[in-house]
From TrEMBL:
Annotated InterPro entries: PsdUridine_synth_cat_dom_sf, PsdUridine_synth_TruA, PsdUridine_synth_TruA_a/b_dom, PsdUridine_synth_TruA_C, PUS1/PUS2-like, TruA/RsuA/RluB/E/F_N
Stated role: Pseudouridylate synthase that catalyzes pseudouridylation of tRNAs and mRNAs. Acts on positions 27/28 in the anticodon stem and also positions 34 and 36 in the anticodon of an intron containing tRNA. Also catalyzes pseudouridylation of mRNAs: mediates pseudouridylation of mRNAs with the consensus sequence 5'-UGUAG-3'. Acts as a regulator of pre-mRNA splicing by mediating pseudouridylation of pre-mRNAs at locations associated with alternatively spliced regions. Pseudouridylation of pre-mRNAs near splice sites directly regulates mRNA splicing and mRNA 3'-end processing.
Family membership noted in the UniProt record: Belongs to the tRNA pseudouridine synthase TruA family.
Family matches, as Pfam families: PseudoU_synth_1
Catalyzed reactions per annotation: uridine(38/39/40) in tRNA = pseudouridine(38/39/40) in tRNA; a uridine in mRNA = a pseudouridine in mRNA; a uridine in tRNA = a pseudouridine in tRNA
Source species taxonomy: Eukaryota, Metazoa, Chordata, Craniata, Vertebrata
Organism: Synaphobranchus kaupii (Kaup's arrowtooth eel)
Catalytic site positions: D165 (nucleophile)
Record has Transmembrane as a keyword: no
Top enzyme category: isomerase
Protein name: Pseudouridylate synthase 1 homolog
Amino acid sequence: MSPNPSPLCPLERETGTDLTLAFLSAHTACKPAANVSLTALRCRETTSKMNEGQHVVKPPADTNEMLKRQAEGNGSWGDAEHIGKKLKTAYPDEQDGRKFPKRKVVLLLAYSGKGYYGMQRNVGSTQFKTIEDELVMALVKSGCIPENHGAEMKKMSFQRCARTDKGVSAVGQVVSLKLWLIDDILDKINSHLPLQIRVLGLKRVTGGFNSKNKCDARTYSYMLPTIAFAPKELGHEDGSYRLEKETLQRVNRLFSCYKGTHNFHNFTSQKGPRDPSARRYIMDMVCEEPFMRQGMEFAVIEVKGQSFMMHQIRKMIGLVIAVVKGYATESIQERSWGEEKVDIPKAPGLGLVLEKVHFENYNKRFGDDGVHEPLDWAKEEELIAAFKEEHVYPTIVDTEREEKSMMSWMKTLDIHDFEATGTEPQGNRDLTLEDDEDGNGSD
């Protein structure tokens, strides 16, 4: 049987005062004086100040409804101090009077890197604008994160899956963070971003999720004009070169040699040959069939690896180009994995794109738990393809035609001494240096 509601009549008689304070006053009045809590005393003091003309904001309507249900006997009273705390923290994050929960999520980003100094922001530096500068500003302006946390994104548990270098693009970048799940969140974030940066997807993840640490592998692509594989004796700067089938087969045979685990210390900087972190596992690397763009033939190279070091992919491609063009012999690949120092050219950054990041282990554990979605982005594939066609491929093609970055770079290949070898000091390298591509550096 419901309790007698008569002790709650003071609530019903309150007009023009805060119902929450009235509720606490009525409740504590029914208790012995010795049991009156500090919260209740403070509430009485606040009520007294109200009588002096101070204004107290009413709680939201659903809080009033809760108090009404309590007055009708639907639920226990509990302790006044506990209820006071509950009411105090019930609506920490509001916009236009509505409550928005703060949750751990991942965002799927696509961006054209031209004009930006990479992915990772440099707080306090306005000279070198990055992708994250734009993203954080959009998150603040859209109301997804507090303005005072914009300069300290660690407070929002922010973590990128991979750093990308100056000019490098992405269509599958993933960042994890806590934010307020406002209405129409993707549209509002994108409304504050330039067109060459888009948030294509959002998914809830576990509270302890870290986009860098939970990533099992990364897939990159590299788009280049096929003239890069032409013999060094041939010019073809007019774009008339076409990649022959036999040359493509040789290119893919050389790329397949990278598969497996090798010591890639020669493909980055600041790593010695005996540094364990220089050993990286490559799952696949292949050059796809060529295609035409604006009268020039291009091809796309895809490489999937567990992780990559700074400049590793560009040097892997640069070395194969040097071999195919005739500047170096095929034996240089085997030598590059040894302890000797080998001079390896680094291909331009223009054509490099972060295609996808993989979370197989996370998906196996949480993808079908009934609460979280698998991080596979299958529903966003059309958006990704459309972004590539509108922003990534045109930028690469137009820039290559205008600036001829690949053509200019190929002219520097003859200054490399591919036969010379040397040894480099082992030393005690500072392992905290951020020179890994996946969250600790960039390619």
